[in-house]
Amino acid sequence: MCSFVVLTDELRPRGERGTVQTDIDPRHLIGRKAFDVKGNKIGTIDEVYLDDATGVPEWAAVRTSLFSRDAFVPLEPSELRDGILHVPFDRALIKGAPDFGVGRHLSPEQELQLYRHYGLDTAPPSALPDHDFGTLASTEESRSTPGP
Q: CB–CB of 85/29 below 8 Å?
C-alpha cells in the first residue's frame, strides 16, 4: 500500500536504500518535469506516493497535460538527473496506466495493477514453510484416557 506525500517540514524518506534514489526528498520531486524513455515530455509531477511499510518513494503522479488526468509512474526504475525525472517507459504506456485518481491511498490491488501494467516484477512473496506441530493435546488425552 502507498500513501501520497503530505508536504511537511518533518517529512523524510525512511527505510533501506534500494535501486530507487531514496536519498531524494519526495517534496523536491513535486513540480519537476518528467520525460519518457525517448526523451519526450510526459508532464509535471503532482504527487509522490510513499510505501506504507518503508516510507520509500514508490510512485509519482504525473499531470500529462493541462486538462488531463495524472498518470502513475514507478519511481523504482526511474532516475532523477539534473532536476528531471527520467522514466524508462514510453509515453503511450504511461498515458495508458490505470487511473485511480490522486490524493488518495493506493491499495495493494491498485499497486498490483500498476506493476502489471508496467511489466514489473509482481511475484507474490514465497509461501511460509508448512510446519508439523505434532499431535494436539486433546487428541493425545482422548487416546490415553480409558473408555467406559
A: yes
Classify the phi-psi angles of 96: left when phi > 0, otherwise alpha if psi is within -120 to 50, otherwise beta: alpha
Q: What is the pLDDT of residues 105-141, one digit of tens each?
A: 999 999 999 999 999 976 555 454 555 545 545 445 5
CB under 8 Å, gap of 24 or more: what pairs does 75-79 form?
75/20, 75/21, 75/48, 76/18, 76/19, 76/20, 76/120, 77/19, 77/120, 78/20, 79/21
Query: Which three cell numbers mark 145?
Result: 484416557
- Other Cβ atoms less than 10 A from the Cβ of 21: the count is 18
